[in-house]
């Protein structure tokens, strides 16, 4: 009797369940395989700098001498600090410009005018997301670069040493800030929307104004979500390649001010990878940079999870 | 791989040689229906790497393969010298200077001179625009114009390809860079070096020292479409017309050798 | 002195409205500028003719076609996989270590810089396969880029189907898989379609992942040749091909044509128009499908 | 008179993670009778109902001990879950039609159970809609979306959808709580008719409703059965003080 | 005996878009009394309650005609909404503490109304918590998150939060419906105490509760007041058939 029903069950099961279930399960697991192989391949290329070329990882991270062929000043060296510093400073700068703006937009969309938010700003944000990075780069190059160049030329208090090409850290950060604002804004919108209506009602019922409610209840309550958006924005800024490469001047030296030329990890990869002969120190070092980018973007995810864990702890 | 497709080949490498390779390919395809040739730049380093790796059929380069690849790799490549190209120092059109001595040029690129007034121009900051270290144009310029002196890396704006260099120089006040003759037009101003005008004639007769051979490398002997295309470029038809029209110097005109 | 809360509220509200206004204005200026700059190139000839690298008057026919073809190819690969993985995550994944691992992978893949994925594609789909630069390798790389996005969209769309509908099906004795295929996916279609159109838009504009995979140039195509095995056929996935976005980047970096600036302006205008088109399309489709599922029209 | 048992549970315990939602629940459910489950919010009524057709399987982290028998077969290991749910249909608190046409809603069950013939399906659809007293109202718009129906009509549609797979038991979880008084009355009348051919278990928070329509009533508190008896007895002279308190509204 | 009116409405009509949720509602609310609002789901009880402190302003597309007076002043044009809400506090169905500490929850109201002194705030917090009968349970954990409290405690916290801004009227929308019987009793007792200093309007779906705690009861149906009278009278001899039907559970 029991066996009888077991047989019946398996017929149902195989025909109407097991087959489909196996396929989707396989593709779920496939994502793990894909990620692991991606990490493996990038890592194996990226590690060659240290294993094969015997460069020191410490030097790679903390030295600013990047000369893959070597010249009168010494043998080849691949210190990536200038690029790392460039990536960090340009992303931070972009974040500083973008975050207040994005949060304001998300507050407008959820609290000030949800109707306009949905009908007008939502599409606007989606379009900003959809604009390809080369187009951002192109507009940066044709509008922002000449503008900043004029600006630096006009400023009397800048001494002659200022970079007046218009290609600068600031230009890159401005372009990036437009590119990452949709990310921060839409995650913040989600975070604010996910708040129970209760908070708002409770605050209003106590005689709070809208601004008081936003500032003292809603934004603090949504803060973990907003931070997640900020980290995602940072990740996007860090990984952006072409738009940045087109406008920052690609100078292998620490920028002395935001008007100085700079270089980033993605930018140097974009510029030099095509030229680098595979297997040489230069090529390997570029792969190491790619590997570093990969590690950093994984770190961002871990940070986001930490933020998320904190949030669930509160609740 | 690309070699499996008999009727289509791809070429990449030197941006200096791009105008010639590209135009010749167009003409060739127009004459030989069914043949497909794709040409892209990317720099000499990329051309050499990719042809060695079998990613493309022809790798264009401004420098000898031996200068970039390991000896055992370079050995596998076959060199086809198709022409020579001169490389000129160029400046933004608002720079009043027309001529620089070799030493001045070196001083500028190594960062010793940073203002045009020190070489007889207006009081204007010099902005150097450089190419990536694996560019053949840069290697040639460094070797023959700068006498091997190391550029002051940090001071330069760096541009990926010759096209960008041209554009940036034309847009940036007080800027200086270098371009293959094939990129010269009214947007930038070429400089005389030690009084010698950068022209094809001066390259051919040996008075202008900054030039390089243009190489088309193949992995092993060229065959099929690859071979006929290289033959086509070496033919009088191309050498006498397209090559000179694009400001390259036909091999047979070169009175000096390297 | 304490500002009256009501007044502080008015000030804050005004600031928010101004910032929102700035945003809208920014988009209008941005798009307006691009379209204005590219206006002289917005004609059929530009859209259909071959690019030229030395002389003026080139068009963007093949790049435009390549972009569209790239979307189709990559969607053909990433959609079935992403949808399956999304179904798995929404419906079958138990809260186990492995599920957490998959979720981490999805997030990690989604946050990877596209240049890193481009390099991975270069290594695996170009170098290791020995295929040289080609459309298919580009499509594969873009699929890697898309996969986490499509998975998430599918998962969300399926999760957003009300539990009550799923319960109804199961309570009638449908198996889980039957419920997924016959109820959940049909109900999730509005969300799926909107998401997929947006994703397609992303592929359309992607460049960094393609520079090292599908290449930055192609050769002239014969648009009357429909044999996908023939190298001059636009349908051949094994040819090197530059998409529209890559084309802009290339024109900027190695553009040697005298009208390079105008060509890039034109191409950028076309791209931005496409972005708007994708967005409007997704809205129209999403609206229609939603209406249908909300019972406003006959089924 | 001997009772004919259709379903019974024995020492049923259910845990959501570490919180216990059902404690030693032992209930006999008579054939062709209406059994009502009452109790304050969160006491485990819905949870219990769902153990009867194993809808709790959907929830993660559920642990069940004890037994549920349908016609003498253990629901958790002697019956395939698909067969079980065919035999034990369920109507939910909020009407939940599929976003499909009225026809497709009803034909869905038969279709997934393998019926393909169009004429056979037509027949089933008509019969089920007649059975749920909805036929006259919708017979001219079978192809229209079910979401266009009113709440009360949707709930009857959901009943028809259950009837279409010819179940033996129908579970109802507060089927009228989202409906207006008129629709409520219609559904109550329908339940009265249905009990001739089906065994019905109904959860309700409305004591008067339980009194009107059920034959037996079980009173739940904190996951336990406090009292289970004939409805009349429960409402007229409950033997437990808590039942009395609940019925007279001291809490809940 | 003359009645002392605290609040009254006149011919109040409220529309959500085009659907009318309140129809000509005219109610007098006595000072220091508990007024209960009863009626089936969707009849407009919550909507009515919210017109009294203008919480409906938050909803889009609401149109209100008619008048609401608080102490003789028209709430919709003679009083500032912030002042109104300070005077007319509200407790919601589901306890809704802010995700902050217990202390911060209570200090929130006074703070936004301009009180900054720490000692003054401490005082208010203590007084409010004592007033809501929660002080003893939480005095040692004021800095801990309010979300860690039990449902009943949270609800009393919400009451304390309202008391902290020293309102004159307290509106309560089914304040015990999400709570267990014990917490319910505590809150009912609290309401009984509070009415000495406050005017209370409470929505409840539990008729027995209305009977136990209120002085006056209004019965709503379809947005209209069917009957409004002393609670005793409503429950013992309603003058309208519909009221009777509802109270005896014929529907709802
Ligand atoms: N999926 C779940 N996970 C965890 N706990 C649950 C879940 N579903 C229900 N519970 C808990 O189990 C207990 C019983 O819930 P159940 O839904 O059975 O109550 P109920 O009697 O139907 O209440 P109501 O009248 O409100 O519907 C409650 O404490 C509830 O919080
Ligand atoms: N924001 C809103 N928009 C549109 N209609 C609404 C809104 N809020 C309530 N309604 C409608 O107004 C009517 C009255 O709702 P209300 O919430 O006041 O009822 P209630 O008596 O409080 O019911 P319950 O006992 O279920 O809480 C209902 O028909 C409801 O659907
Ligand atoms: Mg329930
Ligand atoms: Mg209500
Ligand atoms: O010609 P290059 O691109 O190698 O300078």
TrEMBL record, chain A:
What GO cellular component entries does it have? plasma membrane
Q: Which GO terms describe its molecular function?
A: phosphate transmembrane transporter activity
Q: What is its main location?
A: membrane
Query: PROSITE patterns per the record?
Result: ABC_TM1
Q: Where does the record place it?
A: Cell membrane
Which keywords describe this protein according to UniProt?
Cell membrane, Membrane, Phosphate transport, Transmembrane, Transmembrane helix, Transport
Instruction: Fetch the SUPFAM superfamilies from UniProt.
Output: MetI-like
**Where exactly are the transmembrane stretches of this chain?**
21-43, 80-108, 120-149, 169-196, 217-238, 285-305
Q: Where is the ABC transmembrane type-1 domain?
A: 84-304
InterPro entries from the UniProt entry: MetI-like (IPR000515), MetI-like_sf (IPR035906), Phosphate_PstC (IPR011864), Phosphate_Transport_Permease (IPR051124)
Q: Per the UniProt entry, what are the Gene Ontology biological process annotations, in alphabetical order?
A: phosphate ion transport
What membrane topology is given? Multi-pass membrane protein
Sequence similarity: Belongs to the binding-protein-dependent transport system permease family. CysTW subfamily.
Q: What does this protein do?
A: Part of the binding-protein-dependent transport system for phosphate; probably responsible for the translocation of the substrate across the membrane.
From the Swiss-Prot or TrEMBL record, give the protein name: Phosphate transport system permease protein
Can you name the source organism?
Pseudobacteroides cellulosolvens ATCC 35603 = DSM 2933
From TrEMBL, chain C:
The GO biological-process annotations, alphabetized, read as:
phosphate ion transmembrane transport
Per the UniProt record, which residue ranges are transmembrane? Answer: 12-36, 68-90, 102-125, 131-150, 268-289
In this chain the ABC transmembrane type-1 domain maps to 64-282
Compartments (UniProt record): Cell membrane
Cross-referenced Pfam families: BPD_transp_1 (PF00528)
Q: Which CDD domains match?
A: TM_PBP2 (cd06261)
Record key words, sorted: Cell membrane, Membrane, Transmembrane, Transmembrane helix, Transport
Q: Which GO terms describe its cellular component?
A: plasma membrane
Q: How does it sit in the membrane?
A: Multi-pass membrane protein
So which domain of life are we looking at? Answer: Bacteria
InterPro entries per UniProt: MetI-like, MetI-like_sf, Phosphate_PstA
Question: Gene3D superfamilies of this UniProt entry?
Answer: MetI-like
Query: What are the GO MF terms of this UniProt record?
Result: phosphate transmembrane transporter activity
Family assignment from sequence similarity: Belongs to the binding-protein-dependent transport system permease family. CysTW subfamily.
Q: Which NCBIfam families match?
A: 3a0107s02c
Q: What is this protein called?
A: Phosphate transport system permease protein PstA
Q: Which organism is it from?
A: Pseudobacteroides cellulosolvens ATCC 35603 = DSM 2933
From which lineage does this chain's organism come? Answer: Bacteria, Bacillati, Bacillota, Clostridia, Eubacteriales
UniProtKB/TrEMBL annotation, chains D, E:
Q: What's its membrane topology?
A: Peripheral membrane protein
User: Where in the numbering of this chain does the ABC transporter domain appear?
Assistant: 7-247
Sorted keywords for this record are: ATP-binding, Cell membrane, Hydrolase, Membrane, Nucleotide-binding, Phosphate transport, Translocase, Transport
Which Gene3D superfamilies does the record match to this protein? P-loop containing nucleotide triphosphate hydrolases
Q: Where does it live in the cell?
A: Cell inner membrane
This protein's GO cellular component annotations are: plasma membrane
| Biological process according to GO | phosphate ion transmembrane transport
Q: Does the keyword Nucleotide-binding apply?
A: yes
Concerning InterPro entries, the annotation shows: AAA+_ATPase, ABC_transporter-like_ATP-bd, ABC_transporter-like_CS, P-loop_NTPase, PstB-like
Q: Entry's SUPFAM superfamilies?
A: P-loop containing nucleoside triphosphate hydrolases
Q: Does the keyword Protein transport apply?
A: no
**Record's SMART domains?**
AAA
What's one GO MF term for it?
ATP hydrolysis activity
Tell me which EC number(s) this protein carries. Answer: 3.6.3.27
The superkingdom of the source organism is Bacteria
The entry's function note states: Part of the ABC transporter complex PstSACB involved in phosphate import. Responsible for energy coupling to the transport system.
Provide the protein name. Phosphate ABC transporter, ATPase subunit
Q: Which organism is it from?
A: Pseudobacteroides cellulosolvens ATCC 35603 = DSM 2933
Identify the taxonomic lineage of the organism of origin.
Bacteria, Bacillati, Bacillota, Clostridia, Eubacteriales
